[in-house]
Structures are given as structure tokens and as C-alpha cells.
Amino acid sequence: MFGTKFARAVLAAALSIWAVTAPADVRIKDIASFEGVRENQLVGYGLVVGLNGTGDSLRNSPFTEKSIEGMLERLGVGNLSNDNIRTENTAAVMVTAMLPPFARRGATIDVVVSSLGDASSLRGGTLIVTPLSGADGEVYAVAQGPIAVAGYAAQGANASIVEGVPTVARIENGATVENEVGFELSQMETIRISLRDPDFTTAMRVADAVNKSLGNGSARALDPTTIEVRSSDKSDLVGAMAQIERLTVAPDTPAKVVIDARSGTIVMGGNVRIAQVAVSQGGLTVTVKEEIEVSQPEPISIGETVVVPQTEVTVTEAQANFTILDGGDVSLQRLVDGLNAIGVGATETISILQAIKAAGALHADLEII
To answer: Which residues form a coiled coil (predicted)?
Structure first.
């Protein structure tokens, strides 16, 4: 009981502090990105060799066998199509990576190696040369090297243990960039800022901040996501972008209540408001007690021993108290104080918030995840 009351008090205090705190200014670079400055996904198919008998079983993974044959033929081993390959030290894998913006030839990037067949573990393996292609089909990087597996698997005759995912691995700096994405900042006529969370108010605040820094008329909001900026000095767009991303604005957020029904977690935004509403919370506690008694016949008599169940049902009704949450400018702090006044926990608060929303008194989006 003490732990529940203490946790409720801490939650109320934390939410109250959040409710009275004004939105903080944040840098534009933390809430937006520049159009065209983005990562690109790369993917490739390859083979991991050197596994200690934990690779693909070629009977269940025929594509692994075909890949081994093709690789050995390219290396001059000869035609192996009529031979049976029975190795268990090779695994077919998919290799993925993210190509950073403005990555130049010779730069290295990290790659993720994931088993494609039925290999039990990639620990101790080495990825052989694997081209990584983009969405346009062009090869932008080549990956190769020893892989590092975080998980492990061990198996005996009657038991096995698996920790983590031994069929997924990483290679730090495992791919070398061989081709560059054709994008030049000097060719841009304007700079476009893209907000990660679309919002009309935030877009206007970003445009105003840019105009104060670069001059009136430099920026305008095209929509809730995009702000277009025209720099007077097109020869130094990098400097203008560096100046813009350091500017600070106060992002506006919609009123929202997010509920995780599985864990009982409730997160409320500081803009949550409610109309006048009266809340009562109570419930019934039903206790069922079962006792088993044995009935035996009298000595030297005709009868049978039987089991007689005894059931006792007790119903306890909790006292339901009403509290009135005043209408008007009711902030999150007063909402939490009102709910705490009738002594409700997280589970009851979820039900109350759903009921208040159904009554039309909660002026916020209610999202249940």
C-alpha cells in the first residue's frame, strides 16, 4: 500500500511540474531536416564462410548450394554442378547498410548481416565480397570482413540455450563506398526545411525565426511540413544551412493523452484540457472461498464416503466518492490532482479518461497503444 501511494505521489508531482513548465526552445536541427540531405538504404546478398558447423543445411537451403557453386566457378575451381557439396560451414545472408548523405568514395560504413537460410549461428564467420545496391540498382558500396555476433547458441543431447539472436551480426566499418550519390548543394535554388512532425504553428514559427536571422522575406511556410528558404548568397548555402539549424524555436504540440493499456502507463501532454465534469470511481470486490469437507458413514453401516464442497461468496463494495473537475482552463496539473483526490491508480485512471473522452469533456486526442 505504501509503495502504491508513494508511486502515485511521485507521478502526480512529475506531471504537475511538466504541466506548469512552458515549452522549451529547441534547435531547428532537432525537429527538422533539410530536403535532400538524407540517408539511402543499401542491400546485398552474400555468403558467410568459416562457420563451425553452424551454417545452412544445403538440403533445406538450395540457394546456398547454388551460390557456393557460382562463387567457386568464378574463382576458377571448375564446374561443380554434378558434384554434391556437403559443407556445413557456409551460410547465405542478406547484408544491409545505410549510406550517409554526402558519403565519398573510400569512406567506410557499418553493415548488418542477417541469415537467410537455416543456419543456427553466424559466430566466427567471415563475410566474403558482397556488392551493396541502392533502390536504383546501382552498386554504391562493397562489404567484406569478419562479423561480430552479440548472441550465442549452445545445444546438447537433451537441452539447448539461445541468448540474443546469433543469426544476426554486424561489421563495424565493414563496407567501403565505391560510388557517390549525385547531389550537389550548389545546384539548389532554394533550401527546404522539412519538419519531422507536421504542424502549422511550428512551421510559421520556424519561418519567423529564419526571417529574423536572414532577413525579411527569406523564408515562407509552404505547408505544415515544408518551409522554403531563399538565401541572398547562393555561393554559401552551407553557411546558411549551418546558421539556420542553430536557430531555436518553441515547437507547438497537439493535446494528446497516450495510454499503454498493457503496462498501465499514461503520458499526458501539457496542453490537455477538460470541461467541467464530475467523476466517481468505485467497484465491487467479489471473494470466493472454497472448502472441501469429507462426509463418512457411521461405523458398521451401509454408506459411501463422499466429498462435500462448501462455497462461501463475499461481496464488498468500495465507497465511491465524487469529485468535480472544474471547467474552463483546467490544466494537466489540476486534472491529476482531481483524480488523485478520489484515490485512483493507473488502471482506474485509464477507465476514467476513456469515460471523460466519451462524454466529450476531454479536449485532447486519446491514443491507446
So the answer is: none
Mean pLDDT to the nearest integer, 172-190: 86
- Residue 33 near residue 226, CB atoms below 8 Å: no
Widest pairwise Cα distance in the chain:
114
Query: Among 5-14, 22-31, 57-66, where is mean pLDDT lowest?
Result: 5-14
Instruction: Report the amino acid identity of residue 131.
Output: P
Q: Structure pTM?
A: 0.66
Residue 60 Cα distances to 55, 120, 127, angstroms: 11, 13, 21
Cβ contacts of residue 31 below 8 Å, gap of 6+?
Answer: 195, 196, 197, 202, 249, 251
Asked if residue 354 lies in contact with residue 347, where contact means CB atoms within 8 angstroms, the answer is no
Beta bridge partners of 368: 259
Q: Which helix (H) or strand (E) holds 16?
A: helix 2-20
Q: Are residues 70 and 123 in the same domain?
A: yes
pLDDT in tens, 78-127: 676 666 677 889 999 999 999 998 899 999 999 999 999 899 889 889 99
Domain housing 216: 184-249
164 and 279 both lie in a single domain: no
CA separation, residue 89 to residues 23, 67, 82, 95, 186 (Å): 57, 13, 20, 18, 50
